[in-house]
């Protein structure tokens, strides 16, 4: 991608559905986007390819590539197609297989992502947080250890901490360089323990974010996640991150203050999920400036309004740039 020095440089860090939703909105604005994506997934097609080929899991990378792509809807459907039949093929996603094939052709996971980025004409850059084969583990309150990103929410126990094996895996160098050059760094939304923290636990990642002169923004989830953040408030999310990687990571937190309609609240409550309460005073005690708005977008599921969030991100980052320029 050709760099445009006039556009704010925004680094988005996360994984899962939350990061993809954000990127679909942000790519519509005049910004330079770099996505740094977790590689701790071990379930489904990604987990099978990871075990069979000893490669980083491609699933979250695939979703981010599609979210940032400027391509025909049919090509997106093909890239996201999941095979229903076939011995050894059923359950695999075509996009995952394409990433795996490109890695074998190029000999390198990051190069494979770059080549597919060109094929899909993506609006930005995508890097894995690390190229190492990392496993996410969780220590529960009762002292038990649960292995695997896909297994942690299923354990039915309160999480004390998560950690990576091997400890402190080496970061992807271009991802670190993007953080150093960023005007804005956005973390979230996404599963706190299984999408956000696996990125921040990569060696040097949190320290580079903390040292950066960029404006650092945390986008808090709208709903709690059963098995990870049951009964969590917004400040609980930030406190868990700080407990894992140290304080003073974020300048701002974007919070939803709109209550979902009753039929959606009941649907989520049946899955033991509730709205994340925006406890602004506690957030301020953590040294983070809370910004609240109606960030809700819903049909059958609750999602963030990516367009409105993107406008907030640009307003915050441009304000910080004007401060540095003395305007």
From TrEMBL:
GO terms for cellular component: cytoplasm. Keywords: Cytoplasm. Its main location: cytoplasm. The keyword Flavoprotein does not apply. It is found in: Cytoplasm. It comes from the Bacteria. InterPro entries: CofD (IPR002882), CofD-like_dom_sf (IPR038136), Gluconeogen_factor (IPR010119). The keyword Cytoplasm applies. One of its GO terms (molecular function) is LPPG:FO 2-phospho-L-lactate transferase activity. One of its GO terms (biological process) is regulation of cell shape. Required for morphogenesis under gluconeogenic growth conditions. Belongs to the gluconeogenesis factor family. PANTHER family: GLUCONEOGENESIS FACTOR-RELATED (PTHR30135:SF3), UNCHARACTERIZED PROTEIN YVCK-RELATED (PTHR30135). This is Gluconeogenesis factor. The gene is yvcK.
């Amino acid at each position: 991608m050709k760099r445009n020095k006039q556009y704010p440089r925004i680094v988005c860090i996360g994984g899962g559905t939350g990061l993809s939703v954000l990127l679909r909105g942000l790519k519509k604005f005049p910004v330079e986007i770099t996505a740094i994506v977790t590689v701790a997934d071990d379930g489904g097609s990604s987990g099978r390819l990871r075990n069979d080929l000893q490669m980083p899991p491609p699933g979250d990378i695939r979703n981010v590539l599609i979210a940032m792509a400027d391509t025909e809807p049919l090509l997106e459907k093909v890239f996201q197609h999941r095979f229903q039949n076939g011995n050894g093929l059923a359950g695999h996603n075509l996009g995952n297989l394409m990433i795996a094939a490109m890695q074998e052709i190029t000999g390198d996971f990051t190069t494979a992502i770059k080549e597919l980025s060109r094929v899909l004409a993506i609006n930005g850059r995508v890097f894995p947080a690390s190229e190492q084969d990392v496993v996410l583990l969780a220590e529960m309150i009762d002292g038990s250890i649960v292995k695997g990103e896909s297994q942690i929410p299923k354990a039915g126990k309160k999480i004390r901490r998560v950690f990576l094996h091997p400890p402190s895996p080496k970061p992807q160098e271009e991802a670190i360089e993007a953080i150093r050059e960023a005007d804005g760094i956005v973390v979230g939304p996404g599963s706190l323990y299984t999408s956000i923290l696996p990125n921040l636990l990569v060696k040097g990642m949190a320290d580079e974010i903390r040292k950066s002169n960029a404006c650092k923004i945390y986008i808090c989830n709208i709903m709690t996640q059963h098995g990870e953040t049951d009964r969590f408030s917004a400040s609980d999310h930030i406190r868990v991150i700080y407990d894992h990687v140290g304080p003073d990571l974020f300048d701002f937190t974007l919070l939803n203050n709109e209550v979902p309609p009753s039929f959606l609240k009941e649907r989520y409550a049946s899955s033991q999920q509730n709205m994340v309460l925006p406890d602004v005073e506690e957030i301020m005690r953590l040294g983070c400036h809370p910004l609240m708005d109606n960030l809700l977008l819903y049909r059958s599921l609750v999602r963030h309004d990516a367009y409105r969030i993107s406008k907030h991100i640009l307003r915050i980052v441009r304000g910080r740039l004007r401060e540095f320029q003395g305007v």
